[in-house]
Amino acid sequence: MGKNILVLTGSPRKNGNSDKLADAFISGAQQAGHTTVKYSTADKTIKGCIDCQTCFKHGTACSIPDDFNTLAPLIEQADMLVLATPLYCFSFPMQLKAAIDKFYAFLISQTPLKIKESALLVTGGSKDKAEYEGIVQSYQLMSKFMQWTDQGVIVVMGLHGKDEILATDGLSRAENFGKSIV
Ligand SMILES: Cc1cc2nc3c(=O)[nH]c(=O)nc-3n(C[C@H](O)[C@H](O)[C@H](O)COP(=O)(O)O)c2cc1C
Fold it and tell me: Whole-angstrom Cα distance, residue 58 to residue 103?
């Protein structure tokens, strides 16, 4: 039976490198029979967690009235989470990071999640692998902490212009990765 895969994207640049990478993964995953939901955090307003500790206590996942409350049900329905993002200052763009921080709501309210697996797709300008260590390790630590099986990480380096990924093997790698999800 196909999985329900939630792809959270981080780039504010429409149809840029990481957006194309997300779409290639989605195409592969759909060919493999999975259902996908793509959610662009950069198109939404998700404010930072303020540690008010009132998650799920007032009828919504987060007490701050922002778009996280439309994302939370999608997170609850997902079997797999994929983060598709550009590298911003060695880390996640703030729009995506705000969404990631608010997974805290599920933890402190002990709301169980169905997510069992995760993956990371990253694009960046640098060609130095070491500069991606922060984002890759953050993702890996998070997936371990959340007890998600890490299905893999795709990093496509050396991309500046929004179409530069087309000249790499990144999209075919991502599509094949999507196809390989069982
Ligand atoms: C605010 C900002 C910060 C960035 N920081 C980094 C960085 O730390 N390292 C890097 O290699 N590239 C950095 N980049 C370049 C992007 O990661 C790169 O161009 C990426 O391919 C953009 O993906 P997109 O087309 O999906 O937006 C940065 C770009 C922006 C706009």
Answer: 17
